[in-house]
């Protein structure tokens, strides 16, 4: 038996190709009926996809209101400050108030569609540097392919919403990837950031539990601290301090959701001086306290 030369490269050609490594990490995927969806000034450190089967849902980004309809899907990038509302049952002008439950095969969906908001959502991360793109809400028209995928996903979620089989996982991932490919190129400017900033960015992600300083990160980039701080702000449109804080809070959200950590433990693990300092930073980024976030009163 003969082996092809350079088989370890996975490419029989000498023409080098460069691919962008996107690390999609699924956080949740659910299909609910909502009787109340009054959520104000939400900011979360992961991507969100929303679709409503019926009318009545609204998303607000600054002064722009998105009247949601069943022919479009809405993608919300990380650290976007936005609000939501179910217009048929609107009660609160501040805070986060959600009332609903997951739909199952035992529910008469047509009955709930006449009185509630039928709401599909999924949350996910894309890894470095794609979780740090510019904030925004993106409205994507449903193609026949996307609608077919969406029908499959919602039907499966009514049967099972805990332990998903490989087919569901693959179809959900392909659904997300197809949606993201429809966003304009202006969103993806961060893939072209300066290599020195990207190197520091990756170091931050790998050492997020440490107390990271500008001089330490500047030395990794082989730059003077002041010059590095200016370069970072120019490339990322955010100060280094605020960026590190955002990434720590993103990690905190992940620990709360998937490891059931206490607020005290998360505060300690991420290098905050005490719970008060951590809670203040958490609310400044997400708009809610760690206790509210852990309670899961949002979608």
Topology diagram in text:
Elements: E1 25-42, E2 47-52, E3 57-61, E4 64-67, E5 72-76, E6 82-86, E7 96-102, H1 109-113, E8 117-125, E9 137-141, H2 144-159, H3 166-180, H4 195-206, H5 214-220, H6 225-236, H7 240-259, H8 263-269, H9 275-286, H10 290-295
Antiparallel strand pairs: 1-6, 1-7, 1-8, 2-5, 2-8, 3-4, 3-6, 5-9
Q: Which fold name is given in CATH as the topology of the largest domain? A: Jelly Rolls
CATH class of the largest domain: Mainly Beta
- Rough outline: globular
* Low confidence ranges: none
Order of helices and strands: EEEEEEEHEEHHHHHHHHH
Structural class label: alpha+beta
Mean pLDDT: 87
- In terms of DSSP E residues, the strand content is 15-25%
* CATH architecture assignment of the largest domain: Sandwich
CATH superfamily of the largest domain: Regulatory protein AraC
User: What is the number of helices?
Assistant: 10
What is the domain tally?
2
- The helix content is 25-40%
Number of E-state strands: 9
Rg, Å, rounded: 21 Å
Describe this structure in words.
By secondary structure, the chain is α+β, with helices and mostly antiparallel strands. The chain has 2 domains: 25-188, Sandwich (Jelly Rolls); 189-295, Orthogonal Bundle (Arc Repressor Mutant, subunit A), CATH 1.10.10. The chain is 37% helix and 21% strand. It contains 10 helices and 9 strands. It has helices spanning 109-113, 144-159, 166-180, 195-206, 214-220, 225-236, 240-259, 263-269, 275-286, 290-295, and strands at residues 25-42, 47-52, 57-61, 64-67, 72-76, 82-86, 96-102, 117-125, 137-141. Strands 1, 2, 3, 4, 5, 6, 7, 8 and 9 form a 9-stranded antiparallel β-sheet that branches. Strand 3 and strand 4 form a beta hairpin. Helix 2 packs antiparallel against helix 3 and helix 8 (263-269) packs across helix 9. It is globular, with a radius of gyration of 21 Å. The protein starts with 24 loop residues before the first strand and ends with a helix. The model has no long low-confidence stretch (mean pLDDT 87).
